[in-house]
Amino acid sequence: MIQIKALPFGSMHNLNFWVECTETGSLGVVDLADGVLMIKALTEARKTPSHIFITHHHHDHVEGLGEFLDHFPKAQLIYPEGETRIGFKGYPYKDRETIRFGATKVLGLLTQAHTRYSLNYLFDSRHLFTGDSLFFAGCGRLFEGSPADLLTAMDRLCALSPDIKTYYGHDYAQSNLEFSAQIEPNNSEITKQKNIIKSKGAPLFSSIALERLINPFFRIDQKEVIQAIDPQGQLSREERIGHLRQKKDQF
User: Fold this and answer.
1) What are the Metallo-beta-lactamase domain coordinates in residue numbering (predicted)?
2) Phi/psi at 18 (5° precision)
């Protein structure tokens, strides 16, 4: 069994996490928006990490990695295979590779849209850490990938078990839901989630099941989504998701 703690760090609505195996005490950190603050949080909690999982190379996910590794030199650094921009040597993790983490396992799933090398980490077959690949009701911008890459990534994540919980690298829930409501104004689940956030604040995780209901990048084959981005019905799925991403960029 694992326990998860979310830590909001940084000026870009970053969410970092630590994941702990309750049976063995193994503790993994997922991404670093601020290495100094993460060191402080772990030290105050008297925790020592055994692993640090990096989803992609962007600075707000590796900030302070040097200080972190100096403070916790035994922590195993893990990052996507092929990524050379992390700046530190570690273990390059392959797509579909599984490693032991305490008494459980972690599966790596590559999505090449936000960056060329973005890795999602699935802990215990139930908890998926997506970095900037997938957000609450949204996804990351296309910095290095193409619309075809984004389609492949979204189809891959959407096809996972609906029971899997998803943990994302930034809290953009409110903005994403506003955009989703513009695309699907008659979607009652989007309205429900907007009201929940208004009364209780943004959630720290989602699920594949919920994203199938509210995330337009999972829903590009829905009639209302097609009508919003391709009213003439002339675009391919790849073109539709590309247009959808462009609309979100301009939102």
Assistant:
1) 13-170
2) -120, 145
142 and 245 in contact (C-beta within 8 Å)?
yes
Q: Which amino acid is at 188?
A: S
pTM here? 0.95
If one counts the domains in the chain, the total is 1
Structure tokens at 6: 């979310």
* Residue 98 lies in domain: 2-249
Provide the CATH number for the domain around residue 59: 3.60.15.10
Residue pLDDT, tens place only, 142-181: 999 999 999 999 999 999 999 999 999 999 999 999 999 9
Q: Report yes or no: 209 and 105 within 8 Å, Cβ to Cβ.
A: no
**pLDDT tens for residues 171-207?**
999 999 999 999 999 999 999 999 999 999 888 899 9
